[in-house]
Hints:
By secondary structure, this protein is α/β, with parallel strands linked by helices. It has 2 domains: 5-169 and 359-376, Rossmann fold (3-Layer(aba) Sandwich), CATH 3.40.50.2000; 178-357, 3-Layer(aba) Sandwich (Rossmann fold). It has 16 helices and 13 strands. Helix 8 (178-188) packs across helix 11 (259-268) and helix 9 packs across helix 14 (326-337). The protein is elongated and about 65 Å long.
Amino acid sequence: xxxxxIIISTQNYPPAAGGIQSYIHELALALHHLGNxxxxxxxxxxxxxxxxxxxxxxxxxxxxxxxxxxxxxxxxRKVLLQLKKTDQTILICDSWKSLELLKTSTLDSICxxxxxxxxxxxxxxxxxxxxxxxxxxxxxLILANSDFTAQRVKPYAPDFSRVHILHPGVNPPxxxxxxxxxxxxxxxxxxxxxxxxxxRIEARKGQDKMIEILPTLLTEHPNLLYLIAGSGPLQExxxxxxxxxxxxxxxxxxxxxxxxxxxxxxxxxxxxxxPCRAVGDSVEGFGIVYIEAxxxxxxSLAGRVGGAGDAVIHGHTGLLCDGGSEKDIHLHxxxxxxxxxxxxxxxxxxxxxxxxxxQWPKIAQKLLHYASKQQAAR
Length: 378
């Protein structure tokens, strides 16, 4: 496959933290390592360590500062200027918002790709429906992170044949240091089995439901430990609730952990649990953290809502439950912990799938395959 000139237009970019920021950055790196010429144009405000970060990259990043409405217009002008300078170009927009201000006539000779994550497409048709549909009509390809997201896009897509599934990728896990392993051991101690959730502590992730079912789980597994890695708005209330329920000794709030600490914890855990649920319009579009757990051989319990069913294959790499039902969550965890052989087999299958299909080089190659087919069909 010949090398391409790839322009990535994104609202935000590291060193700012966030799921979309990380997605776009890892995709850019993977495309670069496959031999493509990559440049990122970003309308994010500047960050304290931005210059150091940008200087470490193997491709250029152009950042536009100023008020939001000016950044959007300036970014669109910068993208159009670059498109006129390069041949055999692929334009990747992190969402429909980064595509909206680009003129259709300028996009005629390139392959224009819009990434879809899920939450940017309201389930209920709203006033901006026409804006989104008009914008998506300019995209040659709309790459949704899951089947759930593809279905969210469907009412807005003028031509649904342009919508394809492109799951997010993962990198090989960061090897834990001796210090990371020691810290994980100090958190876990003599507890067994160990359940873990990694992610922002908020209602849709399901840490609150996990706390609620701990008294029942502890009657079956008195030495069980539930690890919560991350921080978020529900943390204080969950600490209080754990004390009220008398399970505080079996819950460990680890706070935000380093990559190495996360690897150490996932290696030592028996089951990754994030029984996600919808909270208003807030829902998991995919759930890359399930794949990060899978890379370390850990099976998952996920919620059926949203795109988690693409991340966790029910009965193969984990189980899916009703994340809004404490009874159903407990039933599925009980089932998984009661059959150690099946649990181990699901972890092995999860790891094989993650390593074979969901690492970033594979994802980047799949994107280029879609782009090549679209260009050949012109």
